[in-house]
Design brief:
By secondary structure, the protein is of the alpha/beta class. 41% of the residues lie in helices and 15% in strands. Strands 3-2-1-4-5 form a five-stranded parallel sheet, with helices on both faces. Strands 6-7 form a two-stranded antiparallel ribbon. Helix 2 links the parallel strand 2 and strand 3. Helix 1 runs parallel beside helix 5, helix 5 crosses helix 7 and helix 7 crosses helix 8. The longest helix has 20 residues. It is globular.
Length: 273
């Protein structure tokens, strides 16, 4: 009998971590997905993560999902992503003002919990466990805690602070990949799992500025996180199945696509000059 493979995944509910979840499932891992409620403005991503994991379980995938609520943390943090913080900036994902979306030490806070869960599984099951994260090459300029150097040093501390920690290793398959490559891999994983990628990605949420309209929550299409996602779908010649809106209400894909292309073009013109 083939030995089971175990993975603990940091799942935000966004496109990148959801794509990695699909890849792990396609590669026959037993996945524990962990999400965090830390007072983020875009808390709807947690609801999306729950909906998606529930859907995948019904499709026969081996996945468990846990939401860790960190009460009291948000009032201590300064970031545009935190409830009560300044406005989330618009523009391209690689603009310098995107640093306003950095949450101080966020991945270090998360990693301690994820490492503890992974090591507990390793000890209980007497097997190796991987910690999987969907960080990609496009994250490096803005988020230092998404870089490999941070992950290596954090892992060293984990090894130094725990017995048998070598049973747990990190799995960062997208660390030097583009967001487009991440999406492509997720869609390929959907095919391997006999899933409709449109149904899957409809249940992911990447926007840092959720739009509430008529008692429903939509993605915005002007914030950097949304532009990065839309750019990936455009690069693959695909329509993003997510529902988008602005202050006037839901908008169609043509509106979303036209706005994103304009922002992307202006950004590339700026970096040329």
């Amino acid at each position: 009998m083939e030995k089971k493979k175990y993975a603990v995944l940091s799942l935000s509910g966004g496109m990148d971590s959801s794509s990695l979840m699909l890849r792990l499932l396609a590669d026959e891992y037993d996945v524990m997905a962990i999400s965090f409620d830390y007072g983020q403005k875009h808390r709807v991503e947690l609801e999306k993560a729950t909906s998606l994991t529930d859907y995948l379980k019904k499709k026969g995938c081996k996945i468990r999902h846990h939401i860790i609520k960190i009460d009291g943390l948000s009032v201590l943090l300064h970031s545009a992503l935190i409830s009560g913080g300044e406005e989330v900036p618009l523009g391209h994902y690689h603009e310098s003002n995107m640093r306003l979306t950095v949450v101080p030490n966020r991945n270090k806070i998360f990693s301690s919990i994820i490492q503890a869960a992974a090591l507990s599984i390793a000890e209980a099951q007497k097997t190796a466990v991987i910690i999987a994260m969907g960080v990609h090459g496009g994250d490096h300029a803005t988020y230092p805690d998404c870089r490999e150097v941070f992950r290596d040093k954090d892992y060293e501390a984990f090894l130094a602070g725990n017995w048998d920690a070598e049973k747990v290793t990190y799995h960062l398959p997208y660390i030097n990949a583009s967001k487009t490559a991440v999406l492509r891999d997720g869609i390929n994983a959907c095919e391997e799992l006999n899933l409709n990628y449109e149904e899957i990605y409809k249940m992911t949420f990447t926007s840092y500025i959720p739009v509430e309209y008529d008692h429903m929550i939509y993605s915005d299409y002007k914030s950097a996180s949304s532009i990065g996602r839309i750019e990936a779908f455009l690069a693959l010649g695909l329509k993003d199945p997510a529902a988008y809106a602005d202050e006037s209400g839901p908008v169609n894909w043509q509106t979303v696509k036209s706005y994103a292309k304009k922002v992307i073009s202006e950004f590339h013109q700026k970096i040329k000059t």
